[in-house]
Design brief:
The longest helix is centred in the C-terminal third of the chain and has 60 residues. The chain is mostly helical and 956 residues long. Helix 19 packs antiparallel against helix 20. The two termini are 105 Å apart.
Amino acid sequence: MYIKALYLSSYFAPKAPKCKKYQFITNVTIRRVTEPTELELILEHSGIDSTMLKSPSVNLEQISLNSRASFLSLELFDDWEFDSFDSEKVVYWKNMEALAFLPSTNHWQRVTVASHEVTTNCWKVERFDQSKMTRSIHWVPRLYLYFPFEDPYKFVSRIVAVSEARQNAENAIRFRFLCRHIFSDGSYGPGRVLEQSMLRRANEEVYAIFRNIYEDYHVALAVRKHLSRDGTMAIKPPMVDNKMPEKSVISLPTVNIDRLLDRFTRTTLFCTRNVYNAVRLVNQECEIVRKLPLFIVSFERPIPLEDFEKQNQTQTTRTLKYLQNTWIERTTMQLHRLLSRIGEGDFNVNVSNWDIYLVMKLNRLNEQVLFRMQDALRDLLLDTTEEYVHRLVNDCLAILSVEEDYSWDGNLIDSPFEPKRAPVFYLKLEMGEDAPYYSTDPVTFPVLLRSIMDTVLTECHFIHTIEPSLMQSLIFSEDHYLSSVGLLDAIIVERRRSLVEYYEKSLLPLQAYAARYGAFKELFFTNVKEFIEHVRTEDKTSSELKEDIALQIRMRENLEHTVPQHIVIGPFWINVQPLREALIQKRYDLTMALLKLLTEKLRHKTADVIAAYNVINERVCQKPVSIEHIYDIRAYMEDVPELVSRLEDRMRGILYEYEILEGFLYNLPDTDFEQKWQAQAFPRIVLKQTVSVREFLESEVDRFRKQQFADEAAFTASIEDINAYISKFTTLYDVSKVSEMSVEVRRLWKALQELIDRGHTMNRRQELFEMAPISLNNLYELQHNFGANRELWTTAADYLKLEETWIGNPLASVDLGAVRRGLQQTHDTLKDLMAPFRDQPQLLAVVEHFVQVVEAFRPNLDVMEQLKCPFLEAKHWGQLAKETGIKGKLSADVGFDVFLEHGFRDHLETVRRVAAKAEQQHLEQEVRLAEEERIRQVEAEYRRVRAERRQQRTEL
């Protein structure tokens, strides 16, 4: 049926006047329009958009004539047979650049004309895609091809005329479809009175013809009246071709208006004012629903995804609550209030019988309300989802052309992904330990945005109809819901695909842009203290530090010029300012740390110079304590000018390094600034100080000369006192007080040595004062004579201490070699002292006494040597104790004094015999162990050989 209606389109397609349709070639050298945007702008001003030019791609069997969409191709109405442009005679169109509308792109594109098909008037064009570097071939009708030499306004007028012709044809098809296929059920036929009157005057065949004409006429009137009230479809019905019979042929009887009104009242739904008002209020509620906001997508500034989700969740919850509760309640209340006034009859809301309800007008009214509510709900979802996708997909065509291997090769400031509309979402770029990251993971955007839309669509499937709440006397199922837009609806699927594809594509430049900031990770995590410590360990010069500081400043300036504060990438507004400021601050911190390091280095250098000046100053300004000191200060002052000159040269080099800090406009701390000028002022201070010091030293020379006379008298008195004391000491020879004598001897010897040193010091001062030297011969003679006494008493005291340690310590810790050397050395020293004391019998007796003491200890060496035998064991010590009659436990850990107390010197032979026996047993034990080891090796070899023979026997 629909196909037949389409074929009749040529009958209802009036041809447009030629003067308004054709474009004429006035001058082939004039290029009227060369850019697609210019032609699209002219078409837009004329009311022609891309959807009107695009040919319908629906199946002819599935065309719905109740929709607004065009179902006829535009080129069908083009009167191209009388086109004044002859492609065979005019050949300059070949290989010419023209503008063509390509349905695949929905836009006018720049193409190259290749050939022409005369029979279909289709033109072959080639299009070059610069983004993909490919060529594509298309066949387009003449209506979709514009040559540069054509008049653009005449060309647009031709398209407008064709579009109007197509619209008239489609309106005619829709009108005749409604008139022909509407089900009248006799409602639009002649009344009974008119029927009887016609049958009385004519036969049934004439009445049948009259009835058909009558019904067609009133159906057309009803359709026209309905279309004039409903503004959703602009259909202009053509003039009705059927003509009414003339009065001379058929005379109509008088019509009973009351019966017609009664029949109309019983047939039509809007029979009372209350029903009309009820439907009007339902329409008002539906219009309110159509304007409800399901999503919040308009924001003054970009917001984070979390806030977007919370606000939309709040708005969706509020709107769904209205749809699921308030809308149903208000609509039910309005219907119940108005229908209850009618009372019993076709609109009785208290009916309790399903069979009666199904044939009532109330059932038809509820269906009307259901369809209106479903239509409002569908309009709401389609409009809100369209706005949702339209707002979120902000028309950045560069995003859709991004490949999977995309890398951000340009600078970080200019974005090649600037959208036509403002960005929606806010992201903050941050630096992580592994890589840079965004405050919100971009991967969540496609999933969450799709989930928000799908959740709303899903929830809208659970809005109840008004029948259960209006018809409370009837029982309905609990799942009686309004039909909504499905998740797999073609429109929703396309919108969801475009939304997800747009945001999945936008992830590629986002990740590529964040990856570029990985180069700053090392700088971001640089520890300033560790960095400065590393530079300090390298001990760089000031020039090297200057280069490092300049490098940090250049890098900081480079960051300021290459890293943006924010950037827009498709639907995302990325805040880079915190990371940018952190990187710039890190460069600034490194710069300041290097400047402080250089300042610290210069501070140490300047401090060294000042310390050197202070050393000079302190050395010069020392208060002299002797004449020698005065001469040292004078000698040092002779070198002061040269030292100051060297320090000045050194300070000049440091001042050059200070200029490095001034070049970086770095303000020195007050202490460093004061130190710098102090170092520059020190040379004048030091040289001025030397003048005053020379005058002071002259006065000090006289003071020390007077002091020298007093010291000389005191020195002479000291020599006399010590001479007298030594003379008295040489008369002492008590051997029992050897320790006290050795201490006193050492003290006297030290005093003699100090007097001699003091005499040398005074002689040097005598020379400095230009005075005669003091004689020290008597002191040297006294020292020489007293040397033998010192040697005697110190040797004797040292030996007694050694002997005490040999006897008192454990026998195991006594070194016999050391004992033997100590005895021999003491004996030799005492023998040598006999000659000096030959004239002093008392002291000679003392020497002989200590010689006898040494000789008396020698026998103990043999006993000690036997007792320290390494082979003595516990049984041998027990045998010694038994044979010597000692009741006690003996061992090498016992002191030698224990053995002396028990008279071991008298049992030397016993000790020697037990020691020899222990050595013999040790030798026998070693022989026995060696034999056992040999036998063990022989047995092991025997077992090894036997195992080898056994293994060979097993193998056989």
